[in-house]
Amino acid sequence: MSSALILSNVSRSFGETHAVDNVSISIEPGQFIGVIGRSGAGKSTLLRLLNRLVDPTAGSISFGDTNITALKGKALRHWRRDCAMIFQQFNLVDRLDVLTNVLIGRLAEHGVLSSMTMQFSDEERAMAIRALDRLDLVPQALQRAGTLSGGQQQRVAIAKALVQRPKIMLADEPIASLDPANATLVMDGLKRINREDGITVLVNLHTLDTARAYSDRIIAMRQGRVYFDGTPAQLTDDVVRDIYGLDGLQEFNAAVTSTSVHASVPA
User: The ABC transporter domain covers which part of the protein (predicted)?
Assistant: First the structure.
């Protein structure tokens, strides 16, 4: 049975800047959580704290009986396998084909030699093909990753995360640079994985309509703190105005008009 991911009074400072400030939240297994807030609110730092790409200045993070904050070496690598990260800029190797890029997600299971020589088993190759099939990318399996569209590359990145067999998927603004059609395909893929596999998903989003369409729960950050934590229905217009402020709301409205994403996954 999966465990809750718990942040207890977690902070992260960069010099005088408090990127995340005394955050305490509990993330239950299987939730799809949208994280919103204006630029600089601490959304990206929060996700990076969860899989230890950055370390907290104070507080602790736990997953079941495991103190994530204390992990080092092999144990930390295994946590990053279990808590997969999907980035805005895809993090693929352009010169390698799509299938090999997905298989790179299996390297945490390999020793040094097989990692260096990129040796993968038939079982792993079959796993990668199945992941690509779930994201409608099998026809592109032998195509160089750098020749794909941005939306296709982001779906390859999701497949790469999927073959890690993670318990949690983190996605840091995965649709920020995509057109609405590709953004919908990416969000639909994440939602299907969440529902079919029971994988917990946290997604940083820059548009409110997307967060409302896909999320079971929305966490809104402001100046490094959790300002709102509830269901999409509880996120009223008044709360949104408080989260973004007047100038931030104008910035947000401009983003909404340029990116309109609506869930096509059945409710």
Answer: 5-248
Extract the tokens encoding 25. Answer: 């939240």
Cβ distance 228 to 24 under 8 Å?
no
Check if the beta carbon of residue 41 is closer than 8 Å to that of residue 173.
no
Taking the C-alpha atoms of residue 31 and residue 233, their distance in angstroms, rounded to an integer, is: 16
Q: How far is CA 153 from CA 39, 78, 112, in A?
A: 24, 25, 27
> Can you tell me which residue has the tokens 């395909």?
185
Q: What are the Cα distances from residue 180, in Å, to 39, 204, 207, 232, 256?
A: 20, 16, 11, 21, 10
pLDDT tens for 99-117 read 999 999 998 776 655 556 6
> What is the spatial distance between Cα 106 and Cα 153, in angstroms, rounded to a whole number?
18
Pairing of strands 17-27, 5-14: antiparallel
Structure-token pair, residue 56: 């907290």
CA gap 43, 220 in Å, rounded: 9
* Domain tally, the chain: 1
| pTM score, whole prediction | 0.88
Which residue range(s) make up the domain with 70?
Answer: 5-258
Asked if residue 263 belongs to a domain, the reply is: no
Please, which residues have CB within 8 angstroms of residue 90's CB and are 6 or more apart in sequence? 150, 153, 154, 156, 157
Identify whether 77 is part of a domain.
yes
- Give 199's strand partners: none
pLDDT of 3 reads 85
What is the domain-level CATH number for residue 176?
Answer: 3.40.50.300
